[in-house]
Design a protein that fits this description.
Length: 388
């Protein structure tokens, strides 16, 4: 049965080929000083940087550059960006990039005026912001994280090998996000499929939980079917607008908190994946793909009916003549075949994990217990070892 909830998503989305024009409608809502946040340079190569700067200038904005946000943004970079925001008293942080850039912008937004160490406050103690929050807007260039319409902001501390996400409240969600699927055409294949699997994982981690009859599960089955279908088209032809649009839209819905309303969720694949990321700095979606097959095989006996439903509804497994367990296994096998077809990382060793790291990664895995079974330390080590 659906649990009680209150739901509000304050992010205004502008979707489509002409979505960037809508920046002209958004900018007047904010003051004149804009911190322009971007990554390692892809937006300069694609020409998007020039387009955005020209729109900012024509709207009379003063631009403060904050470049070089790395995939898996670090705590050092967060301190630097927070100084930029505070010292220049910016009125808007405009993130132009993928999930890392957008996450980082949100982390800066709550850190600029934080009078404590934001890493300790938000990422070690999970406290909520009690300072002024700088508004964030986003121009998304890569589909995957859902960061464009949620309060998530994942930060990595390379010194302590900790990669931790804080899911902030609606006051930290981007005020607006611009989603033009054409901007994702230039994403390298490796990053594209990592993003696609990130979406799949977000959905699965909300799907594989609970035994009730829940609208969200039906919605998620549709999202997964669409994602798998479009992923195959986009892998063949990265410039297929229809497929790239569907992937982008599914990514947003997978983690804009909507499908989680009133239902329990699991999130252990993300917790293990983030711990792998803390040790290796590997691409987020690949840390998830590398652990997913062993994780779900391990969890399956505890939530068998949902795995049977997954096999039938998402992978169209014919269960005639099969036991429930055989049907469920066939569903996971179909998922694994699709993952291999996409070229996803299927083992943590290809991401740089060694046997000697396994206990440390398991120690660094944050516990979650909303799923069918909460694995203990030794089970996490066993799941990781399966993936070596
Ligand atoms: O840095 P640039 O040069 O822009 O290159 C990026 C980066 O190297 C490149 N890229 C992005 N758009 C491109 C492009 N290259 C060419 N053309 C384009 N249009 O792709 C690389 C990866 O970008 P990144 O932003 O790191 O990828 P993603 O969107 O997957 O973000 C990953 C981060 O988001 C966090 C992850 O942990 C990771 O730190 N997550 C955030 C979540 C949230 N806010 O709720 C949830 C997720 O589970 C995830 O944890
Ligand atoms: Zn993710």
């Amino acid at each position: 049965m659906l649990g009680n909830f209150s739901y509000c998503n304050p992010t205004r989305l502008h979707f489509g080929r002409d979505a960037l024009d809508r920046l002209n409608e958004e900018l007047p809502r904010f003051g004149s000083r804009v911190q322009l946040v971007y990554g390692g340079g892809s937006i300069k190569r694609t020409g998007l940087y020039d387009q955005v700067v020209s729109i900012l200038e024509s709207n009379g904005k003063e631009v403060f550059e904050d470049a070089g946000v790395m995939p898996n943004p670090t705590v050092e970079k967060l301190y630097e960006g927070s100084r930029t925001a505070r010292e220049n008293e910016v009125d808007l942080i405009l993130a132009v990039g993928g999930g890392s850039v957008c996450d980082y912008a949100k982390a800066v937004s709550v850190s600029a005026y934080c009078n404590e160490d934001p890493w300790e406050k938000y990422y070690l103690r999970f406290e909520e912001p009690d300072c002024a929050i700088v508004p964030v807007g986003c121009v998304l260039t890569m589909a995957g994280t859902g960061s464009e319409m949620n309060g998530g902001a994942v930060i990595t501390n390379p010194e302590t090998k900790q990669k931790i996400g804080h899911v902030f409240g609606t006051e930290v969600f981007p005020k607006f996000s611009i989603l033009n699927p054409e901007l994702t055409y230039t994403v390298p294949h490796y990053q594209m499929v990592a993003g696609i699997f990130d979406v799949m994982s977000h959905i699965m981690e909300q799907y594989f939980s609970g035994t009730d009859d829940n609208t969200s599960d039906y919605i998620m089955e549709g999202l997964m079917r669409s994602l798998v279908h479009s992923s195959r088209i986009a892998a063949e032809n990265p410039e297929d607008y229809e497929a790239r649009s569907n992937i982008m839209w599914s990514a947003t819905w997978a983690l804009n908190t909507f499908v989680a309303m009133g239902k329990s969720t699991d999130w252990m694949v993300h917790m293990i994946g983030q711990a792998v990321g803390g040790f290796t700095d590997a691409t987020h979606g690949m840390t998830l793909s590398a652990v997913s097959v062993p994780y779900y095989r391990h969890i399956m006996p505890y939530g068998l009916p949902k795995f049977v439903r997954f096999a039938q509804a998402v992978w169209e497994v014919d269960s005639s003549g099969k036991t429930d367990e055989e049907t469920a296994q066939a569903g996971l096998a179909a998922m694994e075949a699709w993952m291999r077809e996409m070229g996803l990382a299927m083992s943590v060793s290809e991401l740089g994990v060694t046997e000697g790291m396994l206990a440390g990664i398991a120690d660094a895995t944050l516990a979650m217990d909303g799923g069918y079974h909460a694995p203990d330390h030794d089970e996490i080590v066993a799941i990781l070892r399966e993936s070596l």
